[in-house]
């Protein structure tokens, strides 16, 4: 749904207890999204590997301007 959405520009998923499964699903949707300009994932339990995947997709997203991940709880 997110990958096909061309109008969503801001997404705040902070403090949602997303976890690994949700984060992997999010990463897959971010792969082709080009409308998101702000993403907040603070205070979620996302592992290092999945976080790196999400970050890689965000690096390719030319529209994203602000990423908030200061409070990410990363586990190995």
Secondary-structure blueprint:
Elements: E1 10-12, H1 19-30, E2 38-40, H2 48-60, E3 66-68
Parallel strand pairs: 1-2, 2-3
Helix pairs in contact: 1-2
In short:
The chain is about 35% helix and about 10% strand.
Protein described:
It is built from two helices and three strands, in the order E-H-E-H-E. It is α/β, with parallel strands linked by helices. The protein has one domain. Strand 2, helix 2 and strand 3 form a beta-alpha-beta unit. It starts with 9 loop residues before the first strand and ends in an 8-residue tail after the last strand. The C terminus is likely disordered.
Helix content: 25-40%
Mean of residue pLDDT values: 78
Q: Helix count, per DSSP?
A: 2
Rounded to the nearest angstrom, the distance between the terminal CA atoms is 29 Å
Beta-strand residue fraction? 5-15%
**Which regions have little confidence, pLDDT < 50, spanning 5+ residues?**
70-76
Give the biggest sheet: 3 strands, parallel
Write the element-wise H/E pattern from the N-terminal end onward: EHEHE
The number of E-state strands comes to: 3
Number of domains: 1
Structural class: alpha/beta
Shape estimate: globular
Q: Which features would summarize this protein structure in a list?
A:
alpha/beta; three-stranded parallel sheet; 33% helix; disordered C terminus
């Amino acid at each position: 749904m997110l990958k096909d959405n061309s109008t969503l520009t801001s997404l705040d998923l902070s403090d949602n207890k997303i976890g690994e499964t949700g984060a992997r699903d999010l990463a897959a949707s971010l792969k082709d999204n080009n409308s998101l300009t702000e993403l907040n994932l603070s205070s979620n339990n996302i592992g290092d590997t999945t976080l790196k995947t999400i970050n890689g997709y965000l690096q390719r997203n030319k529209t994203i301007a602000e990423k908030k991940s200061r409070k990410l709880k990363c586990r190995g």
